[in-house]
Amino acid sequence: MSTIGGAIGVAVAYVFALVIAANTPVPMNVPISAVIIALTVSTAVGVFFGLYPASKAANLNPIEALRQEV
């Protein structure tokens, strides 16, 4: 399901960019390397901040974790 949502998001962004580019005198030129770097960094940050806390939580004893919760 997320693949379909991603494809829809890309299509909407592409159409939006075409509409903006057709209605502005400012040229839009984004190098593909900038897009790839941005996607790589944002993916790495998302994976790190998703997996790191999850792995720490998985190693906790559930009873002790609930006992320390305030």
What features would you describe in this structure?
With 70 residues, the protein is mainly α. It is 79% helix and 0% strand. It contains three helices and no strands. It has helices at residues 2-22, 32-58, 62-68. The longest helix has 27 residues, at 32-58. The radius of gyration is 21 Å and the shape is elongated. The model has no long low-confidence stretch (mean pLDDT 87).
Order of helices and strands: HHH
Oligomer: single chain
* Cα end-to-end separation: 37 Å
Q: Give the biggest sheet.
A: none
* DSSP, total strands: 0
Discrete helix count: 3
Radius of gyration, whole Å: 21 Å
List the helices and strands and how they pair.
Blueprint: H1 2-22, H2 32-58, H3 62-68
Quick structural summary:
This protein has 70 residues and is mostly helical.
Features:
single chain, 70 residues, mainly alpha, elongated
